[in-house]
Amino acid sequence: MKPRTVPTALAALAALTAVLVLAIRHDGYFTDSVGLFLRYAVCWALFALALLALRGVPADRVVPLLLAGAVAVAVTGLVAPPRTSTDSYRYAWDGRVQSAGISPYDHAPQDPEPARLRDPWLFPTGAACTGPDRAPIPGGGPVPHCTRINRPAVHTIYPPVAEAYFLVVDRLSPAGARHKPLQTGAGLLSLGVTGALLLILRRRGGDPRHAAYWAWCPAVPIEAVNNAHVDVLGVLLAVTGLGLVAERGLRRRAAGGLVLGAAVATKLMPAVVLPGALSGVRRVRDAAAVLVPAAAFTLLAYLPYVLLSHGSVLGYLGGYVDEEGYDDPSDGSRYALLRLLLPDSWALPVLLAAMAGVSLYVMWRGDPRRPWSGALLVTGWAFALLTPGYSWYALLLIALVALDGRWEWLGIALAGAACYLLAPVLGHRPALSATAYGAAVAVILVAAALRRRRGSGRPGAGADRSHEPVRNA
């Protein structure tokens, strides 16, 4: 063991946090997106160096170092207002509306009915309305009225657990706190994910170093903390749910299903881990123990909002799907890799068939003691084939990488960041998505081939008993 591994890891972490501060304080998404992406790329390079240094750290020092680094990395997200996304402003508005006893699904932010609730920091006027991240509000008279909220003409899209979280944050926020409570809450949730990862890895005999894939990843302070994306709450619930599903006994599996239902009722996307939660299941009652509580929680979570709302609780969901081009492969940069090989009209059916095949493979051949392995496979290929343009979606993928240890899938997260940050310069073009995600998939395939040559399908299989296949109890 090299004697200087701990100082090396500390130096790499210090450099990572310093560059993260510089990157997050650089307000260049609209004015210098290339420079901003280069700063992000340096952060990812330092992240890789820190991970390499961590491999040589003595076992008794790994967890303290990892936790200290997790706190330092997370805190960097608090050094500036949200820089590359305005989603958290919608969260703040939804919480404000609910505190006033109004359903967030009933009115769009620009509607006149809740106008009395408009805070000046969310709804500026006059000269403060300049800037590309301000949306005009009609009916303001001679003085310009605008909002920081994106898509102010449409109803909210967020599911009920997310809305309950926005309400809690609003109720706990001191007057004039603006964006800080949401950032702070997201920072605490991100540290909660680190704690859940360490607990699960310890219980399953895994390497605690793998938790650093999440705890030190640049995407966490940028997307989970600085931009305060509610996805981090869904990630915490998904990780916890998979950890419970991995335990023996129907009660634990049912509890895991319940928590997974809460994850789905937070952001919908965690539904993609459900095939992984059914890894190796052979009996109907074992599958029902997960799926029934998950479905019941999701439906019951919506029920209070259905009863209180006059409008649809699905909000802008359908419009969002249309806007992002998921229903029309020829529009935008979705399905970029599939469209390199197939006619546009084939992209969606082929995607559905491919994901059905991957899901069935995971459910039939997956290890029930490692449901996150199957969840990573399904989630990773869903990202690779859908080629989403929003970098924060990959937070779920990063947490699954931390559970499973297959670092090569982190390239998908970096590809999403490249597509999002470079879009202001290069546009939302299929060529950008195909290049970024194509490079990530190439790394994944090469890594898989190298593992097969070494005779190991998973990292550390010889040393980690949790990788051994077991029969479903």
Short description:
The chain is mostly helical and 473 residues long. The protein has 19 helices and two strands.
Count of DSSP H/I helices: 19
Uncertain residue ranges: 457-473
Sheet with most strands: strand arrangement: 1-2
What does the radius of gyration come to? Answer: 22 Å
- Helices and strands: which structural class? mainly alpha
Tell me which oligomeric state these chains represent: single chain
Largest sheet composition: 2 strands, antiparallel
Order of helices and strands: HHHHEEHHHHHHHHHHHHHHH
User: Cα distance, first to last residue?
Assistant: 40 Å
Number of strands: 2
Give a structural overview:
- The chain has 473 residues and is mainly α.
- The chain is 61% helix and 1% strand.
- It contains 19 helices and 2 strands.
- It has helices at residues 5-25, 33-55, 59-75, 87-99, 160-172, 180-203, 212-215, 219-226, 231-245, 250-267, 274-277, 284-308, 317-323, 336-341, 344-365, 371-386, 395-404, 410-426, 430-453, and strands spanning 135-136, 146-147.
- Strands 1-2 form a two-stranded antiparallel sheet.
- Helix 2 runs antiparallel to helix 18, helix 3 (59-75) runs antiparallel to helix 6 (180-203) and helix 18 (410-426) packs antiparallel against helix 19 (430-453).
- The longest helix has 25 residues, at 284-308.
- It starts with a helix and ends in a 20-residue tail after the last helix.
- The model is unreliable at 457-473 (pLDDT under 50).
